[in-house]
Specification:
The protein is α/β, with parallel strands linked by helices. The chain contains 8 helices and 11 strands. A hairpin with a 2-residue loop joins strand 6 and strand 7 (82-87).
């Protein structure tokens, strides 16, 4: 029989703003109860309706900087004067329990993690076209034309980092993209390097193993001692 490693997979999902990362992540979680989505930490104040430990871990700027100094952050970045990042402890706790952990983060943070944990699974999500990406950003109706163009230009730069990821998924339809991500995760669980130990549980296998151990020496084999 084959025993696989108990530790879960670390899955990093990135892509340009408007590519649909959070939507795809939510769809995959619906189909797999063993996936935990990492909760980011931030130094900004909670907005109305946000809960600590649900939307973010809310801390002071001083506490966040302390976490940076003592190595408690897997990755972090600063936007508009506030810190955002992934705390190492909570991710490790869920991995050690055998749960797969998915991080939906920006490319800047993903590349930080790749330097520290190159064995993690890195997936890049793309829109079907740049025209569609601009349409999705515009349809949100939450940002000015200037901000939309800024995000659009950023997307072009981010796509240049595509070669640093293991897989790419084109989000043409939510169901298709989510199915592909689930298939990638399932395939990664079947990798040879996930095998921790091969152990034998039938007489035939034990005899074979004993012969191998004896280096095929011409000696009698006592089946009763197997």
């Amino acid at each position: 029989m084959i025993r696989t490693k108990k530790q879960g997979l670390l899955i990093v999902l990135s892509g340009p703003s408007g590519s649909g990362k959070n939507t795809i992540c939510d769809e995959v979680k619906k189909e797999n109860s063993n996936i935990w989505e990492s909760i980011s930490m931030t130094s900004r104040k909670p907005r109305k309706g946000e809960e600590d430990g649900v939307n973010y871990y809310f801390v002071t700027k001083e506490q966040f900087e302390k976490n940076i100094d003592d190595g408690s952050m897997l990755e972090y970045a600063q936007f508009a004067g506030n810190y955002y990042g992934t705390p190492r402890k909570s991710v490790q706790e869920h991995l050690d329990k055998g749960e797969d952990v998915i991080l939906v983060i920006e490319i800047q943070g993903a590349l930080q993690i790749k330097k520290k944990l190159p064995q993690a699974l890195f997936v890049f999500l793309l829109p079907p076209s740049m025209r569609e990406l601009k349409k999705r950003l515009t349809d949100r109706g939450t940002e000015s034309e200037e901000k939309i163009m800024e995000r659009f230009e950023t997307a072009y730069r981010e796509i240049n980092e595509l070669s640093k990821y293991n897989y790419v998924i084109i989000n043409d339809k939510i169901e298709n993209a989510a199915s592909k991500l689930s298939a990638i995760i399932q395939a990664e669980r079947c990798r040879v390097d996930r095998i921790e130990e091969v152990f034998l549980d039938t007489l035939e296998e034990k005899i074979h193993e004993t012969l191998v151990d004896k280096n095929l020496e011409n000696k009698s084999l006592d089946v009763n001692k197997i």
